[in-house]
Amino acid sequence: IYAIGEIAEFKGFLYGITAAAEQQAEIVARYLCGDISKPYEGSLLMNILKIHGTELCSLGIVEYPDDPAYEEIVFIDKAKRYYKKCIVHNDRLIGAILIGDKSEFLEYRDLIANKMELSEKRLQLLRSGKTPEPVIGKLVCSCNNVGEGNLTNKIKEGCKDLVQLCQLTGAGTGCGSCRPEVKAILEKEIKKPVPKEEEQKLAAVA
Ligand SMILES: Cc1cc2nc3c(=O)[nH]c(=O)nc-3n(C[C@H](O)[C@H](O)[C@H](O)COP(=O)(O)OP(=O)(O)OC[C@H]3O[C@@H](n4cnc5c(N)ncnc54)[C@H](O)[C@@H]3O)c2cc1C
After folding, report:
1. Which of 79, 122, 146, 191 has the CA that lies 20 to 30 A from 114?
2. Pairing mode, if any, of strands 82-89 and 139-141?
3. Closest-CA residue to 132 (of 173, 77, 170, 158)
4. Dihedral (C-alpha) 154, 156, 162, 164: value to the nearest 10 degrees?
């Protein structure tokens, strides 16, 4: 008997997010096909509040133990209603909260998931300096604020691949619920169906 998704507890923890359900599903599928080399080791917690006009997300560990090995880096701009908290442990980002601008969500997610050492990039990575791309047209991905126009613009620039389109725009790389819509937009623009393998590849890399 295998348990995945909303119903599965791992090391006393219930994730309750689609990304964890997908990662667990991939591991069970591999296991059923005979690949026992990759056991489940837990998922990165990430949550994005989806309320129009409110930017709020959290990633990884946001409450940390009373231990000097953990560092908290906080930026607040009350006038711009911006708040960012990063938790660093052993020169690695392990958690973050972003309020007012979540454009660094994907970058931080990869830094945490890949346990990348920040080293000399620390200042550059943790201090905001990016201007988020405005949403163009109907909102498609509310996790990463990507509109239909942002997608069609990228397709017109030459991006005809579903995985690449999602990686370039950020669409479909949060909770994943907009992936069918992103696929439909791409198919409409390129006037041909997206191969099934591309969808599977996207679920594995996003
Ligand atoms: C309001 C809400 C908002 C959420 N927002 C997010 C979000 O923004 N980001 C995110 O990552 N996660 C979000 N989640 C969590 C996410 O939806 C779940 O983690 C994910 O759907 C779990 O997938 P699952 O396949 O395990 O379960 P489910 O998606 O719940 O699928 C279980 C399926 O089993 C069916 N079922 C139940 N009992 C039976 C039965 N006896 N026989 C046959 N079928 C049955 C149900 O009808 C359902 O279709 C949200 C959840 C809720 C409730």
Report:
1. 146
2. unpaired
3. 170
4. -50
CATH number at residue 170: 1.10.10.1100
pLDDT tens digit string along 92-110? 999 999 999 988 998 899 9
Residue 117 CB neighbour total at 10 angstroms: 13
Inside any domain, residue 107: yes
Residue 118 and residue 76 in one domain: yes
Residue 27 near residue 36, CB atoms below 8 Å: no
For tokens 């690695």, the residue is: 92
What single string gives the DSSP state of each residue in 126-178?
Answer: HS----PPPP-SSEEETTTTEEHHHHHHHHHTT---HHHHHHHH-TTSSS-TT
Pocket of ligand 1 (CB under 6 A): 5-7, 16-19, 21, 50, 175
With the most atoms of ligand 1 within 8 angstroms of its CB, the residue from 4, 6, 10, 27 to mutate is: 6
- 3-class DSSP assignment, residue 93: strand
Give the domain extent around 21.
1-42
**What interface predicted TM-score (ipTM) does this complex get?**
0.93
